Amino acid sequence: MNKLVFKLFDGKWNFAVFLILILILAGCSSTITGKAAAEIPKETGKSPEVYFCPKDDCGKALEAKILAANSSVHCAIYDLKLENLISAFSEKSKSIDVKIVMDSDNQKGQIKGNAVRLDNNNQLMHNKFCIIDNEFIVTGSFNPTHNDNFQNSNNMLVVYSKALADNYEDEFNELWNGKFGKGSNVKYPVVYINNIEVENYFCPEDKCASKVTELVNNAKESIYFMAFSFTNEEIGDALLRKNKIEIKGIFDASQSSSKYSQLKRLQEFGLDVKKDSKKYKLHHKVFIIDNSTVVTGSFNPTQGGDTKNDENILIIHDKKITNLFLREFDSLWK
Fold first, then answer.
1. Which domains are seen in the chain, by residue range?
2. How far apart are the C-alpha atoms of 114 and 84, rounded to whole Å?
3. Is the distance from CB of 148 to CB of 142 less than 8 angstroms?
4. What is the pLDDT of residues 58-87, one digit of tens each?
5. pLDDT in tens, 190-200
6. Which residues contact 165 (CB under 8 A, 6 or more apart)?
7. b/e code 234-267 from CB counts within 10 Å (16+ = b)
8. In degrees rounded to 5, what are phi and psi of residue 194?
9. Which phi and psi angles does 183 have, rounded to 5°?
10. Above 60 in pLDDT, residue 14?
């Protein structure tokens, strides 16, 4: 201890002063905590929209959002092949600010009149999101390609939130300015939309696998998942530790034969997981926890998806939205 501490304890009067100082500091701490809590955005507005491809024609729904834009459309898209969306981007670029970042392994498409930038090829720019008019975002597992729209199993969400739009715009600007595979932590990790708690993270900076692992660790009743590629051992270990609750999982058949796939390992420990039996790919990246929370986005539970690729996830704590994903899971499970 230093001399000040000894003096504070020197006699009853000084000890009383010390207690007063502690109470003052405690009050400051409470004020700081309260301020931080108040900074969590709480918004009201239109309810989120959920689409499942191919039955809902995600491409048509996204086209409508783009054509209705008033000021800006900024998208980070892994791949772009749908002609109606290429035409929509081209048309809107004549009158508003349209910018697109794509993975370098995929073609730019025939988009005219607007800027398209490619990643630096060091990793996958695997996002599938758009920010429209700085008012709402579109995200999910859906790539605007013929296969993802008309054949593969996918999801797409439209979420009306200025706070989420800010998050995604920050991420988009990093990508647009050539910052791939890294970046700043998300501005608003938690947002309330019509009293629905929504968490938002970007990989690798926000450690998406750890967020999923935490949800799995805290599950009380059930865990269901649909995974295109699932090789992450951290999440696999977490599932094995929860083997006393109901666990069901569907793996895409084309990816589950990989030696790194968690399918065989989870099966050997008795978990109820299996390959998708549909003709086309299961492209979802979804975890459903306790029938009340759903995780979705571009993030595959893989090492590359967690530590190298540019990815995003939403964690939505809402039974109504979760039920929509449960129906999709049940249809694929059967």
1. 43-189 (3.30.870.10), 201-333 (3.30.870.10)
2. 16
3. yes
4. 999 999 999 999 999 999 999 999 999 999
5. 999 999 999 99
6. 131, 134, 135, 136, 137
7. ebbebbbebeeeebbbbbbbebbeeeebbbebbe
8. 50, 45
9. 155, 180
10. no
